[in-house]
Design goal:
Layout: H1 2-19, H2 27-58, E1 65-71, E2 82-88, E3 94-101, E4 106-114, E5 117-118, H3 124-135
Antiparallel strand pairs: 1-2, 2-3, 3-4, 4-5
Length: 136
């Protein structure tokens, strides 16, 4: 009785696998199409490899870290509308953009950052933006 149950289970598994194959399809033709599809995918992947390598070469120079500090640059505007924004790559190189907003004028400055430090002296707010970028 156990042997009959075991053989019934095996037969059910075989029927399940055979049911996947279409009755009117040529299995050999189906396998050829699958092989062609796989070959096309392999060709596509090989075409993407040089592009991926180019992107990977550029990644260290992409902006990876940012920091923003808000403040009142001139002491005459509430709401801290002035901003210093640090944008740095993985090496700590990049720039700080400062927008100083006052009642009668707005000033815009950029400063270069090399190896996590300003290429020229940074204001305390700019240094804070750089520190915030490097902390994140």
């Amino acid at each position: 009785m156990l042997i009959v149950l075991w053989m019934s289970a095996q037969l059910a598994r075989v029927r399940t696998k055979v049911a996947v194959i279409p009755e009117d399809a040529d299995v050999l033709a189906l396998l050829r199409r699958v092989d062609n599809d796989v070959a096309q995918l392999e060709h596509s992947v090989k075409g993407l490899e040089p592009r991926l390598a180019a992107v990977e070469r550029q990644l260290p120079h992409a902006i990876s870290y940012t920091g923003v500090v808000s403040y009142d640059a001139f002491g005459d505007i509430t709401g801290n509308l002035s901003r210093s924004i640090a944008m740095l790559d993985r090496n700590g190189d990049g720039l700080v953009i400062s927008l100083l907003v006052g009642r009668s004028e707005t000033r815009f400055f950029t400063k270069q950052v090399r190896s996590r430090a300003g290429a020229e002296p940074l204001s305390p707010e700019e240094e804070s933006a750089v520190a915030q970028a490097l902390a994140g």
